[in-house]
């Protein structure tokens, strides 16, 4: 644009903002102190993000006696410290959190026998022809798993309900109280419990 253009005179410029008057620094909030309060000190628990303003001498004095847990019992302090490990975020145990419940077991992922395929709309079908759900090949049992099935007196293809039913039956049968404290029955009782726990941990029931 040329300096002698008719449009040049129409251009308006903003007025310069008036310089803001600088605010005087705050005074120390310690009773009876008139020095500058240039140092922040936390107000306390349940007032995060809020601070007192003190001078250097008084902020040191305040920090010496500051206790974040003042007024809390030992149990409340221990609970706070425990929750601080996870950043005070909620946590769940396995089986309580729905996403953890629906996720595959570690043993299933390692053995390639992940069967918890979520298919709510039935898209996964045998051969893609809609002849039924597609299941992975039968899982190869490990030696301990095979031994556990033998201990329970079940075949490897037993369902979860069959395993649980057999476990209850054997526990009632071999419980020491039901056999007068017979040592042989007690050993069998322990073997059944161990076998059931192993099958449960590996996702069979």
UniProtKB/TrEMBL annotation:
Domain of life assignment: Bacteria
InterPro entries xrefs: Apopto_cytoskel_mod (IPR051938), DnaJ_domain (IPR001623), J_dom_sf (IPR036869)
GO molecular function: DNA binding
Pfam families: DnaJ
Positions of the J domain: 147-204
SUPFAM superfamilies in alphabetical order: Chaperone J-domain
The entry's keywords: Chaperone, DNA-binding
SMART domains recorded: DnaJ
Entries under CDD domains matching the protein: DnaJ
Name the UniProt record assigns to this protein: Curved DNA-binding protein CbpA
Species annotation: Rhizobium lentis
């Amino acid at each position: 644009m040329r300096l002698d253009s008719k449009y040049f005179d129409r251009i308006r410029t903003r007025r310069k903002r008036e310089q803001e008057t600088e605010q005087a620094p705050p005074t120390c909030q310690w009773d009876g102190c008139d020095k500058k309060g240039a140092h922040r000190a936390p107000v306390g628990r349940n007032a995060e993000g809020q601070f007192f303003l003190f001078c250097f001498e008084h902020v040191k004095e305040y920090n010496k006696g500051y206790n974040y847990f003042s007024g809390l019992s030992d149990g409340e302090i221990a609970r706070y410290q425990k929750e601080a490990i996870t950043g005070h975020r909620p946590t769940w145990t396995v089986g309580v959190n729905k996403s953890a419940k629906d996720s595959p077991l570690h043993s299933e992922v390692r053995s390639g026998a992940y069967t918890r395929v979520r298919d709510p709309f039935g898209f996964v079908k045998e051969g893609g022809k809609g002849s039924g759900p597609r299941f992975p090949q039968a899982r190869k049992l490990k030696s301990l798993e095979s031994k556990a099935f033998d201990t329970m007196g079940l075949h490897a293809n037993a369902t979860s309900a069959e395993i649980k039913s057999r476990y209850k039956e054997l526990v009632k049968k071999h419980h020491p109280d039901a056999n007068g404290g017979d040592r042989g029955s007690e050993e069998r009782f322990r073997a059944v419990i161990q076998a059931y726990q192993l099958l449960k941990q590996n996702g069979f029931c």
